[in-house]
Amino acid sequence: MQEFLSHVKQGLSQSPKKLSSRYFYDAKGDALFQQIMKMDAYYLPRCEMQIIQQQSEQIAKDISTSHSGLQIVELGAGDGSKTKHLLKQFGPYFKPMEYVAMDISPNVLAINEKLIKTEVVGINHRKIAGNYFETYKNLTPITKGRLVLFLGANIGNYPTPEAIDFFNFVKSNLTKNDYFLVAFDLVKHPRKIIAAYDDHNGITKQFNLNLLERINRELGANFEVSDFDHFPFYNPITGITSSHIISLKQQTVEFPDGFTINFEAFEAIHTEVSKKFFWSDIEAIAHQSKMRIVQTYLDQQKAYAFVLFQPHA
Ligand SMILES: C[S@@+](CC[C@H](N)C(=O)[O-])C[C@H]1O[C@@H](n2cnc3c(N)ncnc32)[C@H](O)[C@@H]1O
């Protein structure tokens, strides 16, 4: 709670104003994100499911050349509704197989645990709630192999310099025979991209504005949420979609301790980055973090990629 408050105060005191996307996911944010994943315009989970359903067995075969037992660590695991299909196909290839779900939301981890335990046989499920920048560091060394999963195109939340730092961070807890499997949303037509972040039914708007509702609920601020709007845009030069909350008028928001934030009319709060990747971006990240690309798995339209990395020997 204290960390949330200090991040919010710090972010809203900057110019431009900023809130971290990690705070989207309280119980209401989790439920809205589950709705987003079912939207027609939000193509990402469909691409991801196609790769999982059609290529998980091949991924398991590629990894089983170096390991018979496997610990699968998923960062930002979410509800596990896609991962369960991957784990089912991994089952015959790895014994023992342990799945460690890491997420900042205890609520979503409870859903994940129930789903995986009931639907995937022979798996040891462990859940670790907290910020993965803390919890991943504390993983103990293991004798079996380790595969770290970072799915849902979440790597797009980290623009390139931060993605390189993130790869180095993950690598710090991998041996040279371990693997890192990352889902990348590839660059595609800008209209298709922007439609995914700005749907006509306003679900992405509710998801973005829930950040202000959460600040009111948990930190006692007095945001008048109807005086704010959702505004995403996509830059085809950088491949970056940015989401913003726009203050529709000049206004002041107060916190219980007297801390105030002033907004000018139409001033923006930056809330999320979602980068779409060119191949050259992926190769540059691998090169700069000293990881090698072992294999690539594409969906049929070549719009989305799972890339399997290993630390350089
Ligand atoms: C976009 S969702 C994706 C969930 C899942 N991987 C999927 O593909 O459906 C991002 C997930 O990462 C979690 N998350 C975001 N930032 C995090 C952090 N710093 N530490 C731990 N979990 C985080 C959120 O709670 C959320 O469940």
Would you mind describing this structure in some detail?
The protein is an alpha/beta fold and 313 residues long. It folds into 2 domains: 2-41 and 191-275, no CATH class; 44-188 and 277-311, Rossmann fold, CATH 3.40.50. Helices cover 37% and strands 26% of the residues. It has 10 helices and 13 strands. The chain has helices at 2-13, 27-38, 44-64, 83-90, 106-119, 132-135, 160-171, 190-196, 203-219, 279-288; strands at residues 17-18, 70-75, 97-103, 124-129, 145-150, 179-185, 228-235, 240-247, 251-254, 260-263, 268-275, 291-298, 304-311. The strands form 3 sheets. A 7-stranded mixed beta sheet has the order 4-3-2-5-6-13-12, sandwiched between helices. Strands 1-11-8-7 form a 4-stranded mixed beta sheet. A two-stranded antiparallel ribbon has the order 9-10. A hairpin with a 5-residue loop joins strand 12 and strand 13 (304-311). Helix 7 (160-171) packs across helix 10 (279-288). The model has no long low-confidence stretch (mean pLDDT 96). The protein binds S-adenosylmethionine. Residues 22, 25, 33, 76-78, 82, 102-105, 108, 131-133, 151-152, 154 line the site of S-adenosylmethionine.
